[in-house]
Amino acid sequence: MSLILYYAPGACSGVTINAVEEQGLNVYKKIDIASGEQKTEEYLNINPYVKVPALITDGKLLTENSAILIYLNSLVAGSKLLPKVEDSYHESLFYSDLMWL
Ligand SMILES: N[C@@H](CCC(=O)N[C@@H](CS)C(=O)NCC(=O)O)C(=O)O
Hints:
Blueprint: E1 3-7, H1 14-22, E2 28-30, H2 41-46, E3 54-57, E4 60-63, H3 65-75, H4 88-100
Parallel strand pairs: 1-2
Antiparallel strand pairs: 1-3, 3-4
Helix pairs in contact: 1-3
The protein binds glutathione.
């Protein structure tokens, strides 16, 4: 499997950078959003939503911190990136925290 996470230092993609490192998957590329690199044709071909983070997994695009975290959690057996939930209240609380990100 090939994975590349596009991120910008100091931006909300820090959430997914931490998760990638936590999972031992050090596969990221820096995008300089201050200089507008996210608007270049090269990056728009990767992520037409003009944002970071963007994860490319086996050539397919996944965006949004929350969705990327759920995906990264699924890649590592026994991952503790996301909590185990005991009931529907705690499951909803988990999604509440995740979406707050
Ligand atoms: N809801 C998105 C937010 C993504 C987002 O707004 N990223 C900002 C950096 S924090 C960005 O790429 N901004 C560049 C731009 O809007 O041109 C997520 O959680 O992934």
